[in-house]
């Protein structure tokens, strides 16, 4: 057993838990925050993505004890008191989900990705800040899978949330 202090969605929790407990299991089973999903439980699908100290992580792979003293944000903590997070609004406006199972992980991943900056594996010019175009978005979101295949609308939502003009012609072609 280990004693852990962690802030989840701006609420401090003091917990005794088994050192083998994943962050995902802590969130879902102990704290009853069921927005983050257990998809593959192997870190391959991204359904469990949350933010730890502002960085996106697969919560199924991270031991909860590694988060001692950290700030964890789940999909339940993205929205402010006055309304939805701009990424959530963009997902709704662009119809960027179908069954919705992957959506919580997608949303947390987008929020983290938009704050990251820097080059990706496909960035051609490393001397300047990369342009967040559709190819960059797809590369940066490649760890989050959608079984329904709503990728075109997900990319459009990310472009909207990032302030980039959404590719209307491409989105309309899919609908």
From TrEMBL:
Pathway: Alkaloid degradation; nicotine degradation. Keywords: 2Fe-2S, Iron, Iron-sulfur, Metal-binding, Oxidoreductase. SUPFAM superfamilies: 2Fe-2S ferredoxin-like, CO dehydrogenase ISP C-domain like. It comes from the Bacteria. InterPro entries: 2Fe-2S-bd (IPR002888), 2Fe-2S-bd_dom_sf (IPR036884), 2Fe-2S_ferredoxin-like_sf (IPR036010), 2Fe-2S_ferredoxin-type (IPR001041), 2Fe2S_fd_BS (IPR006058), Aldehyde_Oxdr_Iron-Sulfur (IPR052914), Beta-grasp_dom_sf (IPR012675). GO terms for molecular function: 2 iron, 2 sulfur cluster binding; metal ion binding; oxidoreductase activity, acting on the aldehyde or oxo group of donors. Residues 2-78 form the 2Fe-2S ferredoxin-type domain. This is (2Fe-2S)-binding protein. It comes from Spongiactinospora gelatinilytica.
């Amino acid at each position: 057993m280990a004693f852990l202090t962690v802030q989840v969605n701006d609420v401090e929790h003091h917990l005794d838990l088994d050192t083998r407990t994943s962050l995902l299991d802590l969130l879902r089973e102990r704290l009853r925050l069921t927005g983050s999903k257990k998809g593959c439980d192997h870190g391959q699908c991204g359904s469990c993505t949350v933010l730890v100290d502002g960085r996106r992580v697969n919560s199924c792979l991270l031991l909860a004890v590694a988060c001692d003293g950290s700030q964890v944000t789940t999909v339940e903590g993205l929205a402010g008191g006055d309304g939805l997070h701009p990424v959530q609004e963009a997902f709704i406006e662009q119809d960027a989900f179908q069954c919705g199972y992957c959506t919580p992980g997608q949303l947390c991943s987008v929020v983290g990705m938009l704050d990251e900056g820097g080059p990706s594996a496909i960035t051609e010019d490393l001397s300047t800040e990369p342009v967040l175009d559709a190819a960059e978005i797809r590369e940066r979101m490649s760890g989050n899978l959608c079984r329904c295949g709503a990728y075109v609308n997900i990319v459009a939502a990310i472009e909207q949330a990032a302030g980039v003009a959404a590719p209307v012609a491409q989105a309309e072609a899919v609908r």
